[in-house]
Amino acid sequence: xxxxxxxxxxxxxxxxxxxxxxxxxxxxxxxxxxxxxxxxxxxxxxxxxxxxxxxxxxxxxxxxxxxxxxxxxxxxxxxxxxxxxxxxxxxxxxxxxxxxxxxxxxxxxxxxxxxxxxxxxxxxxxxxxxxxxxxxxxxxxxxxxxxxxxxxxxxxxxxxxxxxxxxxxxxxxxxxxxxxxxxxxxxxxxxxxxxxxxxxxxxxxxxxxxxxxxxxxxxxxxxxxxxxxxxxxxxxxxxxxxxxxxxx
Length: 248
Known about the structure:
The structure is a single chain. By secondary structure, the chain is of the alpha/beta class. It has 2 domains: 3-96, 3-Layer(aba) Sandwich (Udp-n-acetylmuramoylalanyl-d-glutamate--2,6- Diaminopimelate Ligase, Chain: A, domain 1), CATH 3.40.1390.30; 108-217, Udp-n-acetylmuramoylalanyl-d-glutamate--2,6- Diaminopimelate Ligase, Chain: A, domain 1, CATH 3.40.1390. The chain contains 10 helices and 11 strands. The chain has helices spanning 3-14, 46-54, 77-88, 98-102, 108-116, 141-152, 180-185, 198-207, 216-219, 222-235, and strands at residues 26-29, 37-43, 59-64, 92-95, 122-124, 130-140, 157-159, 165-171, 190-193, 210-213, 238-241. A 6-stranded mixed beta sheet has the order 5-6-8-9-10-7, sandwiched between helices. It has a 5-stranded mixed beta sheet with strand order 1-4-3-2-11, with helices on both faces. Strand 9, helix 8 (198-207) and strand 10 form a beta-alpha-beta unit. The mean pLDDT is 97.
């Protein structure tokens, strides 16, 4: 299919105009105009770009692209090498950040919730991308952490008492530790995100709201896969997800 048709459709589905984001959403580096194969990944690292090219991709679709707010705008160093690789191989780079976190079907938070076995009851925050759920029966913090570990295939960092009772759960993928105070105000028992900061530990201890850091990369692998597969199914394209390992 034509590149612009794909970009127009995806932008409408994700409602990118709703978000004031830290980066441009949509087409970031333009390549060939005819799209047959999409490779998805979390971050547009050089490893992902090389793997996508080896797979014969026409378009690389990621959650973390380029041109972030307040970064050096010059095309030098690592950024220059990545962009040169894309241009040399006529590869398109497309990225969606907050719109992909928030989407009610393909979003990172919805997809992570499904893997944790949680159904979202409501959304909070500004923009409303923090998900809140309530279990029918309470479980221990240790049991929830084990569920997350099995779903994501990695051991999360847990701040809180292992035998604490957990029923109300909030989560936001990636580096959403700054939403911990919002989670506390919402009266949840535990907040799950990807990363953790030093002050997050103190907030958890003093508030009694547990915190689980399950990995930035690990929690954001699923939205881009869901979106890529949707595009492939709708437009009869080939789709491959490539997971470039990242311990953070």
